[in-house]
Amino acid sequence: MTTTMHPHPAPGPWPAAATARSPGRLTAWIVRFQRRLSGRVHASGDAAARAHGWAVTPTVGRFGFGGRRYRDPRFTQHHAAAAGQSRGPRNRGPGPERRNTDA
After folding, report:
1. What is the DSSP string of 5-52?
2. Distance from C-alpha of 73 to C-alpha of 50, rounded to nearest angstrom
3. What residue spans define the domains of the chain?
4. Model confidence over 18-74: pLDDT tens digits?
């Protein structure tokens, strides 16, 4: 029984130039493919967030696929204002040593 070798590999979703002899090219192609796919998946969410004035930050998700972080800039302003008005135990009023006991 003889085995025939095909001169060209079977067609697939990868580019013809990305063969076992060029792992760097294959890796670069996979990264580009993942970014394009991530852009397509998140396109509607990104558009809606930008329409509301939110900041969209691309992040690295699982398995190298891109994720997104959406942030409303008004939250930062609210958080900064609340930080100036601490509600900790020191700001609840006079403590026992400061109370007027002359009454």
Report:
1. PPSSPPP-SS-TT--TT-HHHHHHHHHHHHHHHHHHHHHHHHHHHHHT
2. 11
3. 23-84
4. 455 688 899 899 889 988 998 999 999 999 999 999 999 988 877 777 889 999 988
User: What is the amino acid identity at position 8?
Assistant: H
CA separation for the pair 94, 99 (Å, rounded): 6
Cα–Cα distance measured from residue 26 to residue 15, given in angstroms and rounded to the nearest whole number: 8
Residue 67 phi/psi, 5° resolution? -115, 180
b/e sequence 73-98, b meaning 16+ C-beta within 10 Å: eeeeeeeeeeeeeeeeeeeeeeeeee
